Fold this sequence. Notes:
The chain is built from 7 helices and 6 strands, in the order αααααββββααββ. The protein is α+β, with helices and mostly antiparallel strands. It has 2 domains: 80 residues; 95 residues.
Amino acid sequence: MEEVRGLLSSEDNDFTWSSWDDRNAGLAELDEILFALRGGFEVPVHTLRVLFAPTGPIQEVSLSSGWGDAFIALADRFDEAMVEKPENGEHAQDLELDSFCGCLENPIGRGIHVKELGMDSRFAEISVFQCRDCGRHWLRYFYEVEAFTRSGRWYLGCVTPEQFAGLTVENAKGVMEALDWYLYGGSYYNGLMGKTSGEIQLIS
Ligand SMILES: [Zn+2]
């Protein structure tokens, strides 16, 4: 998908015969799919098949823009990748989310696909990453008062795919506090790390 996006992003492309209004519309659709894939969400197979279909939008752009052969090669790889999916893909993911992973004891250093959500109204920084081994999503809530040394504190909690999907900067603290447990650490805690639950106290 990243390669397709790269090919589509060229300023020289001609989108006239594709179902997309213009380059931006095409890239917007690709970005949505890439965002979902990186976040571990399922993208309807039908949506992908339409994109890569003969006379589908990508092929139309490729033919009008002089990279028809490159598209055929990509479409072949797409078909190959899709054959294995129903057998292993979904099932493996479910299994991994049910089973134990080392990240449940210490998720630090296992993160990939970091997504910065931004700051909430308390000026805490919120981000989410995925465990590179099991794909679990970890919510990170970091708070620091710059004027005070040893005020930095972070909280890390494992959220479900549903909680991840509904996450916003403003509900992040509440989502963390509603978890069965989460980890805490940082200079505020003298560099110690531990497990806790309940309300996150920021003023003290
Ligand atoms: Zn893990």
